[in-house]
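Researcher: Here's my situation. A collaborator sent me these components and asked whether they could plausibly form a single complex. I don't have experimental data yet, so a predicted model of the whole assembly would be a useful starting point for our discussion.
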Amino acid sequence: MPLETTAAPTATAPPVTTRTAARQRAAQKRKFTVYGARAGVLVAFLGLWELCARTEAIDPFNFSQPSRIWAQIWQWVTHGTAQGSLGEQIGYTLYEALTGWVIGVVGGVLLGIALGRIRFLADVFGPYIKVLNAIPRIVLAPIFLIWFGLGPASKVASAVVLVFFPVFFNAFQGAREVDRNLIANARILGADNRRLTLQVVIPAATTWIFTSLHVSFGFALIGAIVGEYIGATKGLGLLVAAAQGTFNAAGVYAAMTILAVVALLTEGLLTFGEKRLFRWKPADSGDGR
Amino acid sequence: MNGLTTTAPAIELTGATKRFRTPSGSLHTAVRDLDLTVAPGEFVAVVGPTGCGKSTALTLVSGLEEPTEGEVRVHGEQVEGINGQVGFVFQQDAVFPWRTVLSNVMAGPRFRGVPVAEARERARDWLARVGLAAFEDRYPHQLSGGMRKRVALAQTFVNDPKILLMDEPFSALDVQTRALMSDQLLDLWAGTGSSVVFVTHDLDEAIALADRVVVMTAGPATVKQVFTVDLPRPRTVEAVRLEPRFVELYREIWASLGEEVRITRERGAGNAA
């Protein structure tokens, strides 16, 4: 047994030889090339768009152009939109998406774990959940508008139904596919059913659940936006609808751009949280890029 | 079967049979008419061809599975569900990957309602005994296979099991680590007075560790022959292997086991054809 204990990992930095240095430089250079190429693609795309619109190769009224979109965003930022300040619109949409997301995730995880652990419930509710899942849920948005009115509640509801199902199915699968050895080991060590669920099944299923959290936040945003688009008093979706109503193509694109930025930021936050939570996992080799 | 059964035997299987329904719907008999008695404090090794149902016999004793027919008794009492006196070391990794080494070893006592401070103390004690005191903050994926196995041993021993069931625990390890682990197991076991059933397909390991070696038939498993290993204790695996008596026993037992291995192999060839 001392054989392995003496081999305690003492991380010594490798000596920096000319070869390692050269390799580091090459890796650095490659990184810059990739970033440069990415920026190049964006500039080329926007430039071509702008050029085509200015030379009227495409109709700027229908297709708009980057400079107009930028002007629109700038105008919203400085002067506010017809519905109020831009921050308020973003805030409304985020509030609806987040509320819907949290409710959908909590519901999906609880029900998924419960059905995954309790065979009877799974057998009884399984077919109904399949039927509900088969409905294209976005068509429920108008019904929610009738039920809950123009306020945030109807948007939260459409976000919830979009978020619930992917989270539910992943939690269900995660609870079902826990390593049988882990379960057996926990039972032998003395875990009762409650501890088994809380301390073995749920931690083991978190990987599955987190995969669905990423996708489902996107769904929550879609739910909120579509809800607002159909009928609302505030929000980014309403901005799109209003811009479309006045044939303001630049307004539609501008709202889309803002949405994309918001979605990317929240996604980044989620990834950050995930990294904190999964310290016990071996570092993903594909992560080093 | 042995002369030690004046008090209630630690483990007693009588006519135990276990059938499973396979996914295709047919019945598969894993264990048939198994009779086996293990005395308190005895170390029994069970050898048999691969896939013969040795592991199933262990799950019956542990209470993870119920026998289809027959009886399983532990300390004279019929097994119903998991028995708190039983420890089980699995073939595959079964430590919890999201818990640190210390937390893994604390799991058993905590599941059984021991207060945190006491559980931590007992866990640290066992971690020291398996030589992992310096690694208590690591996660399992940061350890080698041998170290993870020692975590599993500590995790099992910390519960003070009276019955220790081991299902090919060291089969995934390389040869040198395996010898070290076997010695360590003998050390740990020596102080406890618990009964061990050690399933393996490695005859060397079986003879070096056990008081008795039970040879199983090709599946469905039942006892074919029992051999008493009269080698003196304390033993070290590397040394005991060189004794003439060891070689003699090896030859005797292999004569019995080899036949079953051949049968299994021929069956496998028949299935493949």
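Model: Some features of this prediction you could bring to your collaborator: The first helix of chain B runs from residue 54 to 62. The helical segments of chain B are 54-62, 101-111, 116-129, 145-157, 175-190, 203-209, 237-240, 244-272.
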